[in-house]
Amino acid sequence: MRELSLHILDIVQNSIAAQAKNIEIYILESEEEDRLTLMFRDDGKGMTREEARKVTDPFFTSRTTRRVGLGAPMLKATAQACEGDVSVESAVGKGTVVRADFRLSHIDLPPLGDMVSTLIALVTGSRDVNFKYEHRNDYERFAFTTAEMREILGDLPFSDPEVLNWLQDFLEEGEASLKIST
Amino acid sequence: MRIKAFAEALNLRLLTDQPDGSDISVSGCYLGDLLSNVMAKVKEGDLWMTVVTNQNVVAVAHLMNVPAVVFLEGHQPMPETLERGNSEKIPLFSSEESAYGMAVRFHRFLPEAEGEGMP
């Protein structure tokens, strides 16, 4: 993929397809450790050990319309191209954890991309899902949960134009705070 | 046209176990290594040439109805990729040529091929 945010969208779609009600997205960019880590946790229906092993196989899919599911396999290919790897842990009825590591300084590492648009798409696209997001580097941390946001918003939906404006500003400020390096 | 003749015409080495009498039909070619881009642009019937060697290549070829894949610059597909090529019956070839070299070779090949019944 051109950007890591596209991989993030793919993996979160898998969690949504697994009927998760709580999805965590964690991004760590550490120059000190020369490592970028993406971690996803969901409370969806989970998989058997055998299925978890096959998730990164492009010919393994729960879809019935075609025999190919490319989200996790492509993430694994990108990670391995950057001297990293992907691990998948899951249990039936318990949910799934997907972790991808990359060498931060690797020349083939795609840019993170537009996380603000990605988060807006996820938050407004999945009304029943509670997202927990954390993005940190060696100095700063930006984190939020949509549950906290909903408490403040009350009945106002995320699709409300004023809410969207606020959300955009909030996310832009949060992501920008990570770019200030000392 | 016959896969053996096709391989000879383009100076390719066949890596998968296609039986000798197999046919292959290509109507164009596409060069690309960013799989997301290939999925957006490659056309059904294109011979796909790439330096990516992981098995996602076969998955994408299958999904996009690509008749065959050429691995360029001597890059060898990974073992799983070869296995998948065989199980999905997608011929995989190897070439020492660069993308540019193969594009030129293919461009010279296709006009001739049309005379031999290539669609």
Task: Set down the secondary structure blueprint.
The complex is a heterodimer of chains A (182) and B (119).
Chain A: H1 4-17, E1 22-30, E2 35-42, H2 49-54, H3 71-81, E3 85-91, E4 95-103, H4 115-125, E5 130-137, E6 141-145, H5 146-153, H6 161-177
Helix pairs in contact in A: 1-3, 4-6
Chain B: H1 3-9, E1 13-14, E2 28-31, H2 35-41, E3 46-50, H3 56-63, E4 68-71, H4 79-87, E5 92-94, H5 99-114
Question: What this model shows, in words?
Answer:
The complex is a heterodimer of chains A (182) and B (119). With 182 residues, chain A is an alpha+beta fold. Chain A has a single domain, classed as Heat Shock Protein 90 (2-Layer Sandwich). Chain A contains 6 helices and 6 strands. Chain A has helices spanning 4-17, 49-54, 71-81, 115-125, 146-153, 161-177; strands at 22-30, 35-42, 85-91, 95-103, 130-137, 141-145. In chain A, helix 1 runs antiparallel to helix 3 (71-81) and helix 4 runs antiparallel to helix 6. The longest helix of chain A is centred in the last third of the chain and has 17 residues, at 161-177. The radius of gyration of chain A is 17 Å and the shape is globular. The model of chain A has no long low-confidence stretch (mean pLDDT 93). With 119 residues, chain B is of the alpha/beta class. Chain B has one domain: HprK N-terminal domain-like (Udp-n-acetylmuramoylalanyl-d-glutamate--2,6- Diaminopimelate Ligase, Chain: A, domain 1, 3-Layer(aba) Sandwich), CATH 3.40.1390. Chain B has 5 helices and 5 strands, in the order H-E-E-H-E-H-E-H-E-H. A 5-stranded mixed sheet of chain B has the order 1-5-4-3-2, sandwiched between helices. The longest helix of chain B is centred in the C-terminal third of the chain and has 16 residues, at 99-114. The termini of chain B are close together. The model of chain B is unreliable at 113-119 (pLDDT under 50). The A-B interface holds A 1-2, 6, 57-59, 66-68, 70, 73-74, 77, 80 and B 34-37, 52, 54-56, 58-60, 62-63, 84, 88.
